[in-house]
Design a protein that fits this description.
There is one protein chain. The chain is an alpha+beta fold. It has a single domain (8-110), classed as OB fold (Dihydrolipoamide Acetyltransferase, E2P), CATH 2.40.50. 18% of the residues lie in helices and 34% in strands. It has a 6-stranded antiparallel beta sheet.
């Protein structure tokens, strides 16, 4: 399982890559494995204002329906429209083609609350026990 060092992570299994004031957000490889066979993804609208930990999307698998949470406060500036029709990209390329939204960050101080790759890996290992 991959834990790319260039990303930030949440305890609820979202990842984000920060480039200036824009964060690209997706769900981790671990989250995709837990979900199993994916069947549906409900995406937000561009321009949606979100606070940290708001529900940003909903993903459905043959096992469960789970919320995807916003890791930082901000405004949705782009949605990966193609991902809903190609859910296999979440499984095959969760950290590249499997991104879900791009968010314009409105509170950069919240970045301090995120996990680095080592912290996230430790979190995942603690959940598995």
């Amino acid at each position: 399982m991959a834990f790319p060092d260039n990303l930030h992570y949440t305890r609820t299994h979202e990842w984000l890559q920060i480039d200036g004031e824009i964060a690209t957000v997706g769900i981790t490889e671990h989250a995709v494995e837990l979900l199993g066979d994916l069947v549906f993804l409900d995406l937000p609208e561009v321009e949606t204002q979100l606070s940290r930990e708001d529900r940003v999307a909903e993903i459905e698998s043959t096992k469960a329906v789970e919320d995807i949470y916003c890791p930082l406060s901000g405004k949705v500036v782009e949605v990966n429209d193609g991902i809903a029709d190609n859910l296999e990209n979440l499984k095959d390329s969760p950290y590249e083609q499997g991104w879900i939204i791009k968010l314009q960050i409105t509170n950069p101080d919240e970045i301090k609350e995120l996990l680095d790759s080592a912290g996230y890996k430790e979190h995942v290992e603690s959940e598995d026990h």
